[in-house]
Amino acid sequence: MSCGEPHETDCSEVLDHLYEFLDHEMPDADCTKFEVHFEECSPCLEKYGLEQAVKKLVKRCCGQDDVPTDLRAKVMGRIELIRSGQTVPEHDLTASPQAAARQEP
């Protein structure tokens, strides 16, 4: 997605790191770059607003549920793989062979 206009920070960079911005997981200097971009780029601002609304809805509907420790560890492990640029397996490598066999068609 791009608005077709030149920006100091490219639309693709903003959209690739949108969740980091939403979750306040980036340095202040990068946040400032994104805020400037949103002021200049209405398509990216619209996407930001949509994702922000979805995040609030999920928090409101699911925010009270406790996440199992093992599930949290698996999700965090996959996030780290993605951030490091490694390939993420399509199936759960930590699952038992019996569980993996039940998931296959």
TrEMBL record:
It comes from the Bacteria. Residues 11-44 form the Putative zinc-finger domain. Residues 86-105 are annotated as: Disordered. This is Anti-sigma factor RsrA. It comes from Streptomyces fructofermentans. The gene is rsrA.
